[in-house]
Design goal:
Helix content is about 65%, strand content about 0%. Helix 3 packs across helix 5, helix 4 packs antiparallel against helix 5 and helix 6 packs antiparallel against helix 7.
Length: about 180
C-alpha cells in the first residue's frame, strides 16, 4: 500500500459524510455501469440545485421536489429528460425512507411530467431509415457512426445529458 493510498484513506476517514451523502451512497450501491453513472449525475444535479436554493436534501418536502421539476422545465429540458431525473430523486427518497433516514417519503406523490409515447423510446424502423439516409448523404464517417448507433441501439442522451438535441443537430447538420 503506497503512502498516497494511506493519505487518501485517512482523508476519507476524517471527512465527515453527512446523512444525505450517506443516503445517496446507499441508494447508488444498488446499481452499476451506465445506470450508476446516470443516477450519480442526476443526484449531483439535484444536490447542486438544493445547495443553490439553501435547502438540505433530507429536509425536502414534496413542494421542494415539485420546484426542482419546475426548475428543469424552466431550463427548457424535455419531459423525456426530466422524468428519469425525477425517478432517480424519487428513488433516493424512497430508499432513505425505507432505511429510516427520513420519517416519510416526500417524493411519493410528486407529479411527474407526461412523456409522449414516441419520446425516449428510440427510433422506429422508418425513423432509423431516414436517419441513416441523412447520415449517408453527409459522408462515410457519419454514416458509419449512424449505423453503429442504430444497430447497437445506442442512445445519445445518457452520454451527453441535456445537450443531446445539440449533438444530434450538429451530427445531422455536419458541424
Amino acid at each position: 500500500m503506497s503512502s498516497d493510498q494511506i493519505d487518501l484513506d485517512q482523508e476519507l476517514v476524517q471527512r465527515e459524510v453527512n446523512e444525505a451523502e450517506l443516503a445517496a451512497v446507499a441508494f447508488l450501491a444498488r446499481y452499476s455501469g451506465r445506470t450508476l453513472e446516470a443516477d450519480r449525475q442526476d443526484l449531483r444535479f439535484f444536490f447542486a440545485w438544493t445547495a443553490s436554493v439553501g435547502l438540505e436534501v433530507l429536509a425536502s418536502a414534496r413542494p421542494h421536489i415539485e420546484l426542482f421539476r419546475h426548475h428543469m422545465e424552466q431550463r427548457g429540458l424535455a419531459a423525456s429528460t426530466i422524468d428519469p431525473r425525477l425517478a432517480t430523486v424519487c428513488g433516493l427518497y424512497r430508499f432513505a425512507h425505507i432505511d429510516g433516514r427520513i420519517g416519510s417519503n416526500p417524493a411519493q406523490y410528486v407529479r411527474r411530467p407526461k412523456v409522449h409515447p414516441s419520446q425516449g423510446h428510440g427510433m422506429d424502423r422508418a425513423e432509423l431509415g431516414r436517419f441513416l439516409f441523412t447520415a449517408e448523404q453527409l459522408g462515410h464517417q457519419r454514416a458509419a457512426l449512424a449505423v453503429l448507433l442504430g444497430l447497437n441501439g445506442l442512445r445519445v442522451r445518457p452520454a451527453t445529458r441535456e445537450h443531446a438535441a445539440y449533438v444530434v443537430v450538429a451530427f445531422v447538420a455536419g458541424a
